[in-house]
Amino acid sequence: MSLSPRRRKALGQHFLVDEKLADSIVAAAEIAPGERILEIGPGRGVLTERLAPLGKLVAIEKDRWLAAVLRQRFGDELELVTGDALEVELPSSDVVVANLPYAISSPLLFRLFDVEWGRAVLMFQEEFARRLAASPGSKAYGRLSVMAQHHVACRKLFRVSRTAFLPQPRVHSLVVRLERRAPDYEVRDFAIFERVVATLFQHRRKTVRNALRLEFPDAAIEQLPHLQERGEVLTPAQMAGLADLLTD
Predict the structure, then answer these.
(1) How far is 185 from 75, CA to CA, in rounded Å?
(2) Average pLDDT over residues 196-217
(3) Which sequence spans correspond to the domains of the chain?
(4) pLDDT band for position 103 (cuts 50, 70, 90)
(5) Looking at domain 5-180, does it have CATH number 3.40.50.150?
C-alpha cells in the first residue's frame, strides 16, 4: 500500500529508537510523582510511554499524522497539543523532556525561557549542546553560551550515537540537563546586555575596547574595565557589568 505524502514525511524524521537511551533520559529528569511534564516532539512515543505514567504530561506534536497515532495509543494518559512548538502556547511545567529538532533548537530553547519550569533534560545536536555548556575562553564559548547561561545552569550528561535513531542523522547528539536559576548578577537594561554580548562575539578577536567602540561610538569606553581583554574570555557577569556601565 502506498503512503501518503504526510506519512512519508513523518517516517522520514529521525525517530529515537534506543530503548535504553530513552530510559536514561527519563531517569536523568528525576521526575517526582504527580509533577507537571512537558514533552516537545514526541514522534513515535518512545519517551512518551515512559513519561505518561510519572506525572501530568502535556505533549506537543506538529505532525498531524503522528499526533493521531499518539492520541490513539495513549488516549487520556496525556494532554496532546497538535501544533508547532514555536507557535502554540507553551504551558508551565516542573520538568521539560524533549528530543528537539536540530533546525529549531535555538529559537525553541529561548522560547522555553519565557515560560515557567524548573529543570529540563534535552537532546541537541552535539555541537549545539557543547556551545550551550561552554566555559569562558573555550573554543565553543559564544553568544549562545552567555545568553543561555543567563537563564540556566547547563550540565552535559551523555553523548548519543547516530545509531540511536531511525533513520540515522549525519551527526551525533548530546543530552544536557538545564536547571532554571536566577543569574548571580543584575542586568539594568537587557537590550544593552544583548548588544554587548553580540558585539563582543561578532568581533571576538578584537579587544573589548576596540569591539565596543564599533557598537557604542559615543560611550565613555575608556572608563570601562577589561579593555585589554578579548570578549571571549569574559564571564556573563563581567559582560553584564559592562552593559550596566554603558546604560548610564
Answers:
(1) 45
(2) 97
(3) 5-180, 190-247
(4) confident
(5) yes
Query: CB–CB of 105/127 below 8 Å?
Result: no
The grid coordinates of residue 6 equal 504526510
CATH architecture of the region 190-247: Orthogonal Bundle (1.10)
Q: Is the pLDDT of residue 12 over 50?
A: no
Q: How far apart are CA 45 and CA 231, in angstroms?
A: 43
3-state SS of the chain is CCCCHHHHHHHCCCEECCHHHHHHHHHHHCCCCCEEEEEECCCCCCCHHHHCCCEEEEEEECCHHHHHHHHHHHHHHCEEEECCCCCCCCCCCCEEEEECCHHHHHHHHHHHCCCCCCEEEEEEEHHHHHHHCCCCCCCCCCHHHHHHHCCEEEEEEEEECHHHEECCCCCCEEEEEEEECCCCCCCCCHHHHHHHHHHHHHCCCCEHHHHHHHHCCCCCHHHCCCCCCEHHHCCHHHHHHHHHHHHC
pTM for the full model?
Answer: 0.90
Residue range 146-197, pLDDT digits in tens:
999 999 999 999 999 999 998 888 899 999 999 999 999 999 999 999 999 9
Burial class of residue 96, CB neighbours in 10 A (0-12, 13-18, 19+): buried
Alpha-carbon span 95 to 12, nearest angstrom: 28
**pLDDT tens-place string over residues 34-70:** 999 999 999 999 999 999 999 999 999 999 999 999 9
